[in-house]
Amino acid sequence: MQTDVVKPLVITTHVISGADVGNELDAKRVIDQGSRLAARL
After folding, report:
1. I need a labelling partner for 37 at 20 to 30 A (CA). Which of 12, 14, 23, 29 fits?
2. Residues whose CB is less than 8 angstroms from the CB of residue 25 and which lie 6 or more positions away in sequence, other chains included
3. What is the pLDDT of residues 1-41, one digit of tens each?
4. Domain range enclosing 22
């Protein structure tokens, strides 16, 4: 008899926002964060 084991799916997520300081949104900061994350992956 064969039993199927359901394995949990682990998904790693990363958040980049560019809003590191208060309520500011900085496009250059978002691009920098995204580029650095992509280089690590």
Report:
1. 23
2. 17, 18, 19
3. 566 677 788 888 888 876 666 666 778 888 888 999 999 98
4. 1-41
